[in-house]
User: What shape does this take?
Amino acid sequence: MISGIASVLSRLRRVSWLGGRSKWVLVALTALAVPAFAIETQIYDAKKGKWVNYDQRTAVKLYRKTGQAPEDFRRQVVTFRTAEEPGTIIIDGDKHYLYYVLPNFQAIRYGIGVGRDGFGWAGIVEVGRKAEWPRWTPPAEMVARDPNAAKWKDGMPGGPDNPLGARAMYLYVGGQDSIYRIHGTTQPWSIGLNISSGCIRMINEDVIDLYDRVKVGTRVIVLMQGAALYKGV
Assistant: This one.
């Protein structure tokens, strides 16, 4: 077992989504992030009247045509029933949504990109610090496997070409950097996909909106099906 894991919090919650749909969500969370395997994305095709696969090729093609993510992943206020306090961030990695909890069972829902297969994770963390136009320093593991990241091993200055985008919220565990962030992106078409190395991506307009609402110390709950921490619940 990973050193430093605190107590496991197990909860059964019903989460209501826009349009009156609801589902039971089994939550078992630790104080540390635990790897998970991401589920492939689907979006609803109104013309075909069914759910269809949404992959990188489809995403790029659609973004070139419309200049924005599918309606499913655009920012909106939705009905959202949770026992968590307003100001909490709840991330549904499987559905590619980030919820910023509001009073009266509402939330702002943002579309996100999440970790690709093997890089997804789940757990309870908090916003440890925030940065505008943040500097990006790839972790050693990324430097070792990615030649493009290797040239920035000493850090890439913030700016429009920086992969962290316009804003970053650094996720901490027990006062220490988890290496994961909620951040903007230079690839807005990637929203709704399993594509990152574990960080939560948002389009720059959305991450700026969230950044202005979030305080250091904000509780962040990350859910993703298949995480080891669900076992035995």
